[in-house]
Design brief:
By secondary structure, the protein is mostly helical. The chain contains 21 helices and no strands.
Length: 536
């Protein structure tokens, strides 16, 4: 804890949050993913004399930050796409992780003084995990094909687990000096995976049972906060994979949430988790940049020029290893998916494969993994090259986030992949089928209740038919065109009237005719109506 106790911690945290807000707003104006801007900002702030020294605590990352971020990412993942792309995802999350460890282990001994294959194996495991936040935010904004975005998100979700599992084995190899057998290693890996997934699903079933019996937004949001921490700690207590347990739990509950969340709870929960993940991600990316003085202080015996050369060379090696793996890995995945699984899947183009290869950005998890390395071995000797591993990891994070992050939009446009799947055909078709089903049910209800309320049925039917016409790409006749014009006019008038309602509501509150509780309730209803209009 910094000098000054809790007040100093509170002040530093407050300053960090202010910086996150300011630089995230700047990133939005510059149309650059906020992780890139926050890392650069943290780096520049670290060079200012008097800036408080902030130590990245790996326990805080693994036990406080990682569980909710994993849970949120799993919640946002589509199970259908995840399952369909699982082979391709595993080729990256497991195949590429193994290839990265092997490549770094082979190259490290002649690239860096004092490294042998074991230390290289640890270094490879540390930097094997990728962070998809910057890459996927760029990809979605530019309109990269959805199949690429799905694979990137799935890779980032699973290689957190595979990278950390690989790191455990690599560190044990050095700390204990024992070389595990293939059979023993396979059994331990199988237990970590199977037990982690099983525990995650077991907790998810219990949470689902509880959620179906609770109907209160604050309570349900609190439950959603507790779940990832409880799952992670429970899995770690039985020496299973906490990462896989959280992922399995999040995937299951996400798929079932539409059955136990009410509309109001769902809106409030999404809003809360959007804010929480933004705050956590913003803080950790800012703190990454602020680590520069602390990282360099550990390597006082090296010349700055040599350190820069080491960092650049290692970053280039990692980028090259990923690109080298991508093409045979994509081909192997294609063969398995087509010939073994019989999936309707086409081989990605060379341009798409290259873009996926260029998105191997590293994040805070890699730095936390490096800092979490033990300082001493079982025999009391210092952990070999620990400070250099931390430095090289820091360099890789900076180079991949800044270089690849800033050049990725240009690369996507240059390869002609931008906007290739901007329209979502599934969404349009789903909207159409929902409206048609509603009109069919309306016809049934009209027949059973005639002649009462005929004008009400006419008004509702007209509204639904206008929405259905708005989805059509072609206008069949002048009457349809007139209906569409009327529908758009109706939406614009509705928005204007909602503005009048909101202004009137604020005036009544200002005049003291209503209290704030009434204002919040009615304002919430106006917000829901406005949201519905904005989505057609």
């Amino acid at each position: 804890m910094p000098p000054g106790g809790i007040h100093s911690v509170e002040l530093v945290l407050l300053l960090l949050l202010v910086f996150v807000v300011l630089f995230a707003a700047l990133a939005q104006r510059l149309q650059i993913p906020y992780p890139l801007v926050l890392v650069i900002a943290g780096l520049l702030l670290s060079l200012i004399p008097g800036i408080p020294s902030i130590q990245l605590n790996p326990d805080v990352i693994f036990l406080v930050v990682l569980p909710p971020l994993l849970y949120s990412a799993a919640w946002l993942t589509s199970w259908r796409e995840f399952k369909f792309n699982l082979v391709s995802i595993c080729m990256l999350a497991f195949g590429l992780v193994g290839f990265t460890m092997f490549g770094v282990s082979r190259a490290a001994h002649w690239m860096f003084p004092g490294f042998d294959w074991k230390v290289g194996l640890v270094l490879g495991a540390v930097v094997a995990t990728t962070d998809a936040i910057a890459a996927t935010s760029i990809a979605k904004r530019i309109g990269l094909p959805k199949r690429i975005v799905d694979v990137l998100e799935g890779e980032s979700l699973l290689n957190d687990a595979s990278g950390l599992l690989a790191l455990q084995f690599a560190v044990a190899l050095i700390v204990t000096g024992e070389k595990p057998t293939i059979g023993k290693g396979f059994l331990e890996l199988a237990y970590l995976i199977v037990a982690g997934i099983a525990l995650g699903l077991l907790v998810a079933l219990a949470v689902e049972w509880l959620e179906r019996r609770v109907e209160d937004a604050p309570i349900e949001i609190t439950i959603s906060i507790l779940v990832p921490y409880a799952v992670y700690l429970a899995a770690e207590s039985i020496h299973a994979s906490g990462v896989l347990a959280v992922i399995a739990c999040g995937l299951y509950l996400s798929r079932k949430s539409s059955e136990f969340f009410s509309a109001r709870v769902r809106i409030q929960t999404w809003a809360f988790w959007d804010s929480l993940t933004f705050i956590l991600n913003g803080l950790v990316f800012m703190v990454i940049g602020l680590q520069l003085p602390r990282v360099l202080s550990r390597l006082a015996g090296y010349r700055l020029r040599d350190l820069a050369l080491y960092g650049a060379a290692f970053s280039a090696l990692l980028i090259a290893l990923r690109l080298v793996w991508m093409y045979p890995g994509a081909f192997i995945a294609y063969l398995i998916r087509r010939r073994v699984l019989r999936q309707d899947y086409s081989m990605p183009s060379a341009r798409q494969i290259f873009v996926v290869g260029w998105t191997g950005m590293r994040g805070v998890l890699a730095l936390a993994a490096a800092i979490s390395l033990p300082e001493f071995l079982q025999n009391g000797q210092p952990f070999p090259q620990r400070d250099m591993i931390i430095f090289l990891t820091f360099c890789v994070i900076l180079v991949t986030l800044v270089l690849q992050g800033l050049t990725l939009p240009l690369l996507i446009r240059a390869l002609g992949l931008a906007g290739s799947e901007a329209s979502n055909c599934e969404e349009s078709e789903a909207r159409r089928m929902m409206l048609e089903a509603a009109l069919a049910q309306l016809a049934v209800l009209r027949q059973s209740n005639q002649p009462n309320g005929a004008e009400v049925y006419d008004d509702i039917e007209r509204h639904y038919r206008h929405r259905l016409l708005d989805l059509n790409d072609q206008i069949d006749n002048e009457q349809d065109a007139e209906h569409r014009v009327h529908y758009h006019l109706s939406r614009e008038l509705s928005r204007d009237l909602l503005d009048v309602e909101r202004a009137t509501l604020l005036r009544l509150r200002s005049e003291g005719q209503i209290n704030d509780e009434v204002l919040r309730q009615l304002e919430y209803e106006i917000d829901l109506s406005e949201t519905r209009l904005s989505h057609g």
